[in-house]
């Protein structure tokens, strides 16, 4: 089962702790059929393109 990260275009970007740029977005993890799985935070500066795995929170 593959999941995709779908950025919410209406979400508010917040400053990223890693790169300092205000490009940290709330994103949804969705299955291929569009079923939402969970939420995650994605910085488009640190991770501009492909997402092979969802980030793991320790
Ligand atoms: Zn960043």
Summarize the structure in short.
This protein is mainly β.
Molecular structure report:
The chain has no helices and three strands. The relative contact order is 0.29. It is globular. It has one domain (3-43). The protein has a three-stranded antiparallel β-sheet with strand order 1-2-3, with no helix packed on it. The termini are far apart. Strand 2 and strand 3 (36-43) form a beta hairpin. The model has no long low-confidence stretch (mean pLDDT 83). With 58 residues, it is mainly β. The structure holds zinc ion. Zinc ion (ZN) binds next to loops.
Shape category: globular
Low-confidence stretches: none
Major sheet details: 3 strands, antiparallel
Helical run tally? 0
Strand content: 35-45%
What average pLDDT do the residues reach? 83
Task: Give the N-to-C terminal Cα separation.
Answer: 23 Å
Instruction: Tell me the count of domains.
Output: 1
Number of strands: 3
Radius of gyration, Cα only, in angstroms? 11 Å
List each distinct ligand once: zinc ion
Judged by helices, strands and strand pairing, the structural class is: mainly beta
**Proportion of helical residues:** under 10%
- Main-sheet strand order equals 1-2-3
> What string gives the helices and strands in order?
EEE
Keywords:
mainly beta, 58 residues, three-stranded antiparallel β-sheet, binds zinc ion
């Amino acid at each position: 089962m593959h999941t995709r990260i779908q950025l919410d275009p209406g979400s508010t970007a917040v400053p990223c702790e890693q790169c300092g740029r205000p490009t940290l977005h709330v994103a949804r993890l969705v299955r291929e059929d569009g079923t939402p799985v969970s939420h995650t935070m994605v910085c488009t500066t640190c991770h501009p393109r492909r997402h092979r795995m969802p980030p793991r929170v320790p």
